[in-house]
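Forum: Protein Structure Q&A
Topic: Joint prediction for protein chains with partners

I've read a bunch of threads here and the consensus seems to be that you should model interacting components together rather than docking separate models afterwards. I'd like to see that in practice. Below is the full input, 357 residues plus whatever partners are listed. Could one of the regulars post the assembled result?
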Amino acid sequence: MNTIAPGRPALEPAIEAYLAAAMKGDRQTAVGIALDLLGEGEPPESIITHLLVGAQARIGEGWQTGTWSVAQEHRASAIAEAALQAVADAAMRAPGAIEEGSAGQAIVACSEGEWHVLPGRMASEILRLRGCEVSYIGPSIPADLLVEMFEFDPPPAVAVTCSMPLSLVGSWATVSALRELGMTVICGGRGYGPDGRWAQAVGADVWAPTFEDGADALMAALARPRVEPRPPMGSPDRTAELNLLRQEGPTMVESAMALSLAAWPWLRESGNAVRATRVDLLATLQAASSAALVADGTLVHEYVEWFESVLAARDLPVAFVATAFDLLLDVVPPELTLVRAALMEGLATSSEAPMAR
Ligand code: B12
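Posted by a regular:
Agreed with the consensus. Here's the joint model:
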């Protein structure tokens, strides 16, 4: 399989200028840079996949290493959204543009639990540039609510996005619900792993490394009849474990949170510390759940590496990582054998021992 599209070196100066503007919150300049490229003849698909995706990836690295604040990143996402819309609308108005709707209707949805809305917006605009009329069903829609809208006359194919391996169980739920309706599911996003290695375990029919590949696959599948309804991907014991996690995961996080507050009452002195602890416990449980789904320990190893780098960049104790696994092992019930094995693997991989309680 291909890897994610490499950058386009010719656009490097534009990416730098765009990032400088986005960091200051200078929307007008950033959008202007994207529109200037279009005026100079850069294809709109390239501006999306190279300028905007390239910039978003750097912003993500900046957040990870602590050089971009959360607020700056949020503001930059709003700017990227504006630039995306401006480029797509201008390209749609240009002579020779394909008429919207002439290539039929397409649907793009985020996986359950996935709040990265921009990748799906980008996929949607690329489909629109190819003549599709697109319904984009924003972020994190629960799988059962998503399928409600397809109760009558479901389309033969849907595109599903997943931007973090942490959201793979949610993606599995979304894809499972669509498979049961006989839809072909085209999956895209970095959540499925750099080479899409985790897409099959989720039940994807196609994993697309780029928006362009995804648009090709979706448009081809839309031209074919619906397939037979299919069960969720995975053995019954794995499926049962994942369904229990979806129901009880938040309660397990709250139980681990209660253990944290009992062990370290000073956490309560800072609203941010309480919030961050809860977010980290949830992410750690999601990492273990995703690893259980895809039966691949490397997912946990990569999570540990990433989490430790985030803490180290903020001068926070790296021992939080092992502590999160340790707390969750106290509250995740024994019947969740796959998840517990992944939690133990995470604990063993962490570079420091858990904090004493
Ligand atoms: C902006 C952003 C956010 C915003 C999203 C706002 C918005 N409007 O979308 C918000 C603030 C909500 C957010 C939240 C979080 N985020 Co965030 N976020 C990002 C960031 C910086 C950019 C995302 C983006 O727009 N990427 C643009 C896409 C298009 O790029 P791409 O994925 O490389 O896409 C390529 C392919 O994958 C493919 N593709 C992508 N999607 C699709 C879809 C289809 C259908 C197809 C065919 C192809 C395709 O096409 C592209 C190539 O051409 C990324 C960094 C990054 N590198 O992406 C982090 C990142 C994804 N986030 C991350 C994290 C950790 C989080 C949080 C957990 C943070 C927290 N502690 O709360 C939460 C989780 C929220 C949730 N449950 O979903 C991490 C994930 C790390 C990991 N190991 O999984 C990242 C990688 C940052 C980092 N370097 O650490 N985030």
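Residues 4-5, 49, 53, 56-57, 59-61, 63-64, 73-74, 77, 113-119, 122-123, 159, 161, 163-167, 188-190, 208, 210-211, 214, 279, 283, 306 surround cobalamin (CB under 6 Å).
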